[in-house]
Amino acid sequence: MEIKTNAKIRIRLESFNHELLVSSCRKISETLDITSLNSLGMVTLPTSKRIYCVLRSPHVDKDSREHFEIRIHKRILEINYDPELPIIDLLTKIDLAPGVFYRICLS
């Protein structure tokens, strides 16, 4: 009796543009639909915001300020698969859009 263990891969995606992030997740899931996966799940993480306050004129008006913010959108793709499949080779060959940062974690 053979017991097959399932391997797990987590891909963490980050981007300033949420549309690029969604299209990258869709591209990864379409690429992995070819193989026989046990499960593929997407987890949406909270969006982090950085807010910067800048004086409009540093020498005169202290009351005149501008606020800028940067939003970082994050997703995690969790993939359960059989270790015999070449999933890692497929993931490294995927060409994602520029502006999407991703990390592949094996467990």
UniProtKB/TrEMBL annotation:
<feature type="domain" description="Small ribosomal subunit protein uS10">
    <location>
        <begin position="10"/>
        <end position="105"/>
    </location>
</feature>
<keyword id="KW-0687">Ribonucleoprotein</keyword>
<dbReference type="InterPro" id="IPR036838">
    <property type="entry name" value="Ribosomal_uS10_dom_sf"/>
</dbReference>
<keyword id="KW-0934">Plastid</keyword>
<dbReference type="GO" id="GO:1990904">
    <property type="term" value="C:ribonucleoprotein complex"/>
</dbReference>
<dbReference type="Pfam" id="PF00338">
    <property type="entry name" value="Ribosomal_S10"/>
</dbReference>
<dbReference type="InterPro" id="IPR027486">
    <property type="entry name" value="Ribosomal_uS10_dom"/>
</dbReference>
<protein>
    <submittedName>
        <fullName>Ribosomal protein S10</fullName>
    </submittedName>
</protein>
<dbReference type="GO" id="GO:0003735">
    <property type="term" value="F:structural constituent of ribosome"/>
</dbReference>
<keyword id="KW-0689">Ribosomal protein</keyword>
<dbReference type="GO" id="GO:0005840">
    <property type="term" value="C:ribosome"/>
</dbReference>
<dbReference type="GO" id="GO:0006412">
    <property type="term" value="P:translation"/>
</dbReference>
<comment type="similarity">
    <text>Belongs to the universal ribosomal protein uS10 family.</text>
</comment>
<dbReference type="InterPro" id="IPR001848">
    <property type="entry name" value="Ribosomal_uS10"/>
</dbReference>
